[in-house]
Amino acid sequence: MQIVRIIEAPIKLESNISNALVNFSEHTVSLLALVTDRKVNGRPAIGLAFNSIGRYAQSGIIRDRMAPRLLAADPGSLLQDGTDLLCPQRVLACAMRNEKPGGHGDRAHSASAIELAVWDLNAKLAGEPASATIARHFNRPARDERVAVYAAGGYYYDGEAQSRLIEELRGYQARGFNRFKIKIGGATLEQDLARIESALVVAGSGSQLAVDANGRFDLDTALAYGRALEPYELLWYEEPGDPLDYGLHAALASEYGGVLATGENLFSHQDVRNLVKFGGARPDQDIFQMDPGLSYGVSEYARMLLELESNGFSRRQCYPHGGQLMGLHVVSGLNAGGTEVYPDVFQPLGGFADEAVITEGVVTVPDSPGFGFEQKSNLIHEFTRLIA
Question: pTM of the entire structure?
């Protein structure tokens, strides 16, 4: 098998919403198609992917650096031993040739799109869901047939009223979600507490509600919020400070008795190692949210899980950021704890297949080949346009 073309194009998110720091109305994502010379029913075998949600498209890095390396490589050097299938790790290593270590930023997202497309391709060629391909590749006992999910929303909308937040969460509840996440840090503490009280009208208890500050707070503010939040016994308090400020996280963990969550802005296993060594994370309590769509793909994410396990943590403490089909399959294949879902926001990328059914906060992982983009009508429409 040989890669004959790599097609990338940015797509704009359909979201004019804000968290504590960012408005997403200008955000884009890279859609990517990995075209091979392998034929299936007379048509080229193609792997599809994108670089998750919440950053920007990576057209330049893919077009000018990574795609040329792959297209110039000896085709045999990219294959799994003894097969005619692409090896995700070898494809990733080729894409990263001549890149210095460290500096895990936009190039991590670029590489993710390419590496994830290999998993989609190989699973389609095997006629199985990507989660099954991932589980077998990493010698997992089996993929998880059902995965715990929570609805991520509760953003700040222009001119919003508390009734709008309640209406939004009730909409998720009607679709089978029983755990929710809302934003904090974009208003005053008093206003955010009022938003939490409104969300609890739907969630019912703090154990069903998480809050996310998106790295907004300094230590004093993070501690003040922690003191105010602790009586609610929330599902978790997410990313209170800068994701690389491990000292802040450790200081907060020593004071805040509830669950803390972080990791979505860490893009390598070395970052995860530093987090668990210096960030005060607590085994059997805190949550890790690294996103394979932002951190070099499934191969590096699997190394992150091993890093956690070697330091006394469980992979079941991992709930990746992302809220989309790729994350669902990675969680299923690697037996992580669960995943977030964007049921309404960040379309056409957020959420699962059109026919996905959530029952009491759990979704059955579909059996459709690959990541199942073909079963999400608004997304496969964009991929079809990309390839055409």
Answer: 0.95
CB-CB contact of 377 with 356 (8 Å): no
Omega prior to 348 cis, within 30 of 0 = yes
353 SS3 class: coil
| DSSP string computed for 303-315 | HHHHHHHHTT--G
Q: Is 183 considered catalytic here?
A: yes
Considering the candidates 137, 321, 329, 376, report the single residue annotated as catalytic: 321
Which pLDDT belongs to residue 344? 87
Closest CA to 109 of 122, 123, 92: 92
Catalytic pick from 183, 249, 269, 376? 183
Annotated catalytic residue 321: yes
CA 94 to chain centre: 23
Tens-digit pLDDT profile for residues 199-215: 999 999 999 999 999 99
DSSP string of 111-175, one letter each residue: HHHHHHHHHHHHHHHHTSBHHHHHHHHTT-S---SEEEEEEE---B-TT--HHHHHHHHHHHHHT
Q: How confident is the model at residue 7 (pLDDT cuts 50, 70, 90)?
A: very high
Domains and CATH numbers, the chain: 3-127 (3.30.390.10), 146-373 (3.20.20.120)
Find how far residue 144's CA is from the centre of its chain. 17
